[in-house]
Amino acid sequence: MRAPIYLDHNATTPVDPQVVRVVARALKIFGNPSSAHAYGKTAHAAVAEARAEVAALIQALPEEVIFTSGATEANNLAIRGAAFAMASRGRHIVTSVVEHPSVAAPCHWLSEHGFTITTVGVDAHGHVSVQAIVDALRPDTTMISVIHAHNEIGSVQDIAAITAVARRRGILTHTDAAQSAGKIPLSVKDLGVDLLTLAGHKFGAPKGVGALYVRAGTPLVPVLVGAGQERGLRPGTENVPAILGLGETARLARIRLPKLTLRLRARRDLLRRRLTQAIPGLAVNGDPDGGLPNTLNISFPGVTGRDLLAASERDVAASTGSACHAHSSQRDALAAMGLPPERQRGAVRLSLGRSTTVADIEDATAALVKAWAGLA
Ligand code: PLP
């Protein structure tokens, strides 16, 4: 029996075979990067190389990359770290209603610790309006945090327009780019952000490693306190094998990106065409033309997304939304976009990856259409 076709790359990706080899070799680099002897120096040099690769992917300087345990930690460091570093200037933060819980929860935590949070809404395509951000700003606003590419609906926000406004007013900007890396071009220069979050396992690295870009000179205090690793912003002995895996993933992403983006988009569009042809009343959620090239969020008519995926689980592995909400009935982003409850209930997120073939698209379409016909 064939394994189900994996269409859940926004939840996590398989580790790239080349990255597996790098990580396996790196397990033998056992020195502590902080040690002054030869073993330490070898580990330190390897981490420095990985840092340079991650920096190159996002057009940053190596010293602006702080390795973390993943996007959740990077988001916490960015939001809590910048909020407290800027607290003497103001205690107001602006964010959006479609943030991942690893941004929304630190913002909520801050709201219970003397800060005020303003949350701006999105339009029917999942876009945050720059004007809504401008309208939310106050004299005491110190930071704006808006997700770059959305994990459930794939909408990509105009971060450059937001940072242009913020810079004129001396406000820090953070974006959670966990879903963008390896899928679309990602340049901190073009985006103009001060802080940017990356997650290794969303683009071919192992789980448990990520990074925070911190523009040189950005005020930031650590969330974890301890020794001086990662410029004191993320103390603790470095996870050398995972960091080297992230470095290799970044290197591969930089080389592969232009072709991969085109291939993902062509296959995603084929999937959308096939499903809309076969299922009358199927609705596409989110930005129909822009957005992440690998992501298709659709609502099946007359069924729930959950029932549909259960009926097709032998053939297709996908989800109704974010893995963080998979076991709840919460449908935050679609509700925030103002979609009717029926359309929210019928929603399924199909997210493609580098390994998704045209045959996978055809087979997945057949399985989903069959499951829908059996339920509707
Ligand atoms: N931010 C976004 C947009 C995500 O999609 C995810 C993963 O689901 C995260 C942050 C959290 O990543 P991690 O679980 O690796 O910390």
How does this structure look, described?
It is built from 12 helices and 12 strands. It folds into 2 domains: 5-13 and 257-375, Aspartate Aminotransferase, domain 1, CATH 3.90.1150.10; 17-253, Aspartate Aminotransferase, domain 2 (3-Layer(aba) Sandwich), CATH 3.40.640. Mean pLDDT is 96; it is low at 326-331. With 376 residues, it is of the alpha/beta class. Strand 5 (141-145), helix 6 (159-168) and strand 6 form a beta-alpha-beta unit. The radius of gyration is 21 Å and the shape is globular. The structure holds pyridoxal-5'-phosphate. Residues 70-72, 100, 102, 147, 151, 176, 178-179, 199, 201, 323-324 line the site of pyridoxal-5'-phosphate.
What's the helix-strand series? EHHEHEHEHEHEHEEHEEHEHHEH
Which hetero ligands occur in this complex? pyridoxal-5'-phosphate
CATH superfamily of the largest domain: Type I PLP-dependent aspartate aminotransferase-like (Major domain)
CATH fold name of the largest domain:
Aspartate Aminotransferase, domain 2
CATH domain class of the largest domain? Alpha Beta
Kindly state the percentage of residues in helix: 40-55%
